[in-house]
Amino acid sequence: MKRYWLLFSQVVTVLLAMLFVLSTLKPQWINTSRSLAGQVTLLEAPAADARHRAAGSLSEPARIASPAVVSINTRQNNKSPHKGDPWFRFFNGDPDEQDVSGLGSGVIVSPQGFILTNSHVVENADGIEVVLHDGRKTQAKVIGLDPDTDLALLKIDLDQLPVIVLGNPDSLRVGDVVLAIGNPFGVGQTVTSGIVSALGRNHLGINTFENFIQTDAAINPGNSGGALVDVQGHLMGINSAIYSRSGGSMGIGFAIPVSTAKTVMDSLLKDGKVTRGWLGVEPTELTLESAQAFGLSMPNGESALPTGVMIAGVLQNGPAAKAGVQPGDVVVEIAAKPVRNVAELLSQVAALQPGVASPVKILRGKKTLSLTISPGVRPMNKQR
């Protein structure tokens, strides 16, 4: 009996010694988090909580869209017209011929290497370098520019290009989460997030044709031409401009809807330019004073305005003048579509096919007239 007791004592002593060594060298192997009252084990948060945090992350749309967003470096040769003129050099010194460089962003929209960006990013550039997300660099050529919408189409010749998926901007709603991806200030690709603040913004004086998506996602110089994507990583717009008093983001950025960009891209691929209809008129918003001055019929009392756009001027021998349009007329319909403001009139006229007669309904005084106008080709806007 004594021998058994001695053996038991030795076994207990060895076990206690092992426990002491483990608790000193490997404390994580031993569960020391027990309550004195109920001996309940306290566990760390399960992995499911980490997955729950990831559910609110925007890393997935950023991962999907980022590879298709490129940085654009432009070079403009600043050649002085006075180079080689000894008299200019004598009075003014050597002319400054330092090259001018610019930064911007672009989005790869096809495996063939077509890239959408802003017209103001690449216009007048003598050299355009595209830097891909994976570090590859190559020169790009301009397929076409459309200053009226501030869009441009470039082409690069590389294999295995990442391509962004085009989304449907008509599905966007105010409050939807969006990401802006680009190369602000040349620091490298950057992703910012925000929401859609407004849709259909116009009358900003930025482009001739405006239908902007407004967002509070931070957009800074260098982001121009980059991607505005939804939470699925689909392209919703091309970042174009910011409202700023300091040159930095103030939470008001504007993107061109991808539907507009696709229409422009198709035209540039087909013709190298965008052909739009043109009437040769100077439109202005209708006011109560102008309506009264031209004796327009006022529905529902003298304080109500008719729906339409007033024509302030008509170009001599232009399409509208030939059809009988006069200053003071109010355009209410074009091709059976109502016209409510100047932006709608410009867009609807631009959509007309040049040379194809279209019906136009106008108000002249208290009369409603139906005219037929054959639109011309809208003159190319000067590059900024």
Question: What is this structure's SSE topology?
Answer:
Elements: H1 2-25, H2 47-55, H3 59-65, E1 69-76, H4 86-92, E2 100-108, E3 114-117, H5 119-122, E4 127-131, E5 137-139, E6 141-146, E7 151-155, E8 177-182, E9 190-201, E10 212-215, E11 227-229, E12 235-242, E13 253-257, H6 258-271, E14 277-278, E15 281-285, H7 288-293, E16 309-314, H8 319-323, E17 330-334, E18 337-338, H9 342-350, E19 358-364, E20 367-373, E21 376-377
Antiparallel strand pairs: 1-2, 1-4, 2-3, 3-7, 4-5, 6-7, 8-9, 8-11, 9-10, 10-13, 11-12, 12-13, 14-21, 15-16, 16-17, 17-18, 17-19, 19-20
Task: Summarize the structure in words.
This protein has 384 residues and is of the alpha+beta class. It has three domains: 78 residues, Thrombin, subunit H (Beta Barrel), CATH 2.40.10; 103 residues, Trypsin-like serine proteases (Thrombin, subunit H), CATH 2.40.10; 101 residues, PDZ domain (Pdz3 Domain, Roll). Helix content is 22%, strand content 30%. Strand 6 and strand 7 form a beta hairpin. The protein starts with a helix and ends in a 7-residue tail after the last strand.
